[in-house]
Every structure is written in C-alpha cells, then in structure tokens.
Amino acid sequence: MQLKLPGLNQGRKKPAAPAPTAKKEHILKQDFIVQITGQLDGYLKKDIGLAVDIILETMAQALIEGQRVEIRGFGSFETRQRKAKVSRNPKTDKVMHIPPRKTLHFTMSKSVKDPLIKR
C-alpha cells in the first residue's frame, strides 16, 4: 500500500518503489536511500545518500538549537524540557534524584495519523 501524503509526492518522476517483500522490524537510513534512488532517474545512490545526510544533519542542528522542525504532511519534531524528579529503585528501595533533561517529541500530521489508526 502506497501512502499518499499531499505535498511530499510532488516532483517525483516515478511512483514510490514497492515495499520489500520480507517484513522488517525497522527501516534503516540505507533503505530510504535505496528506495529514493529507485524513484528518481539520473541520480546516483551516493548523491542521494549525501542529500539524506544533509537533511538529517540540518534537522538535528535545528533541534539542538531549540527550533521546531516541521515537515508538512508528515509531522513535527521539537525538544521538550522534562522536570527534575525523585524516583525510587524498586530492587534496592533507594531514592534517586533524576535531573531535568531534554527529550525529543514527535507529533504526526493528520495525513499520517489517520491511515495509521485505521490499521
């Protein structure tokens, strides 16, 4: 099943490559590169890999700087500050102080969320 995301499929010369026949537990960056290379004529796998690396580095740098990263039709990434808290180790019953920390939060767009919920 090909997911149709408005705005993300524009400019593509070929339809999305079919999903691999064997069901994987996870998809690696290399899998994205192979799939994108199969969709675009005239581009080398090396060039697509470089573009993917640049995109991911740019997103990571923006998040490190505290910016929100939004990909329309897919979702948005942002960092959130977690408060310090006091916890207890259930094995030793020892009280632990957990310091405040930043976490990454992802909010999926409606066009991704709706098909995912229907599964």
What does this structure look like?
By secondary structure, the chain is an alpha+beta fold. The protein folds into 2 domains: 12-66, no CATH class; 68-119, HU Protein, Chain A. The protein is 34% helix and 23% strand. It has 3 helices and 5 strands; from the N terminus they run ααβββββα. It has a 3-stranded antiparallel β-sheet. A two-stranded antiparallel sheet has the order 3-4. Helix 1 crosses helix 2. The chain is elongated, with a radius of gyration of 19 Å. The termini are close together. The model has no long low-confidence stretch (mean pLDDT 87).
DSSP helical segment count: 3
Strand order of the largest sheet: 1-2-5
> What oligomeric assembly is this protein in?
single chain
What integer value in Å does the Rg equal? 19 Å
Order of helices and strands: HHEEEEEH
Low-confidence stretches: none
How big a fraction of the residues is strand? 15-25%
Which structural category fits the helices and strands? alpha+beta
Helix content: 25-40%
